[in-house]
Write a structure and sequence with these properties.
By secondary structure, the protein is of the alpha/beta class. It has one domain: TIM Barrel. The chain is 35% helix and 18% strand. The chain has 8 helices and 10 strands. The strands form 2 sheets. It has an 8-stranded parallel barrel, surrounded by 6 helices. A two-stranded antiparallel sheet has the order 9-10. Helix 4 (105-114) links the parallel strand 4 (91-94) and strand 5. Helix 3 (71-86) packs parallel to helix 4 (105-114). The chain is globular.
């Protein structure tokens, strides 16, 4: 069975994902800019929903923009990983690139060390590397457990052939998780491509209060349920 990961940015979304049968959540903030590190209080509150092992994965990304980080930002991400683990995260979601657009192996090793044996997912920074097969080898050598990718496509299902190639190249050393515009109707094709998991936000626009900027999003229970049901049939 292909696993279903729901990207959420609040406790209510995590509760919806849990009630809908999702296998795990990726907790973040600021989805409108692709997701940033959530607060410690958010991590602790989502952890309090369930003691299910492997369920809570936390995004660690210090700012929007690219994935080339300064030494200060490297220190910050490693500290955030350690704090997430201390708050009860089962895994962390990270990514770092060099100026040349390759995986920053040194930064990645520091992040894996900070995770203290928890699951490590390399996020969609993977989509920005020029040679994804070479990057896969770097990730496997560093001890990364999952790669979240759409292979640079707006919709991961459009990259089914390349995802299949990556799954074969991974050869069980790490798992491939398809993310990027994933819909419940895509699950069967992504599973057939060899993906071990799918990742989606399953969100809908909600009504916000007076004032403020940006868009309010809620996790849609019907989309969570549809994704989980689709996963159960493959």
């Amino acid at each position: 069975m292909i696993a279903v990961e729901i990207c959420v940015q609040d406790v209510a979304g995590a509760a919806t994902a849990l009630d809908g049968g999702a296998h795990r959540v990726e907790l973040c903030s600021a989805l409108e800019v692709g997701g940033l590190t959530p607060s410690m209080a958010a991590i602790e509150s989502v952890r309090a929903l369930t003691d299910r092992s492997g369920w809570l994965h936390v995004l660690v990304r210090p700012r929007p923009g690219g994935y080339l980080y300064t030494s200060a930002e490297i220190d910050l991400t490693c500290a955030d990983v350690a704090h997430a683990v201390a708050a009860g995260a089962d895994g962390v979601v990270v990514g770092a690139l060099t100026r040349e657009g390759t995986v920053d192996a040194g930064h990645l090793r520091a992040l894996v060390d900070a995770a203290q044996g928890r699951t490590v997912t390399f996020h969609r920074a993977f989509d920005a590397v020029a040679d994804r097969r070479a990057a896969l080898e770097v990730l496997a050598a560093a001890g990364v457990d999952l790669v979240l990718t759409s292979c640079g496509r707006a919709h991961a299902v459009e990259a089914a052939a390349e995802l299949s190639d990556l799954a074969r190249a991974a050869a069980g050393r790490l798992r491939i998780m398809a993310g990027g515009g994933v819909r419940p109707g895509d699950v069967a094709k992504l599973a057939a491509a060899g993906c071990d998991a799918i990742h989606l936000s399953a969100r809908r626009r909600a009504e916000g209060g007076p004032g403020g900027e940006g868009t309010v999003w809620h996790t849609d229970p019907s989309l969570v349920a549809a994704a989980v049901a689709a996963a159960a049939t493959v």
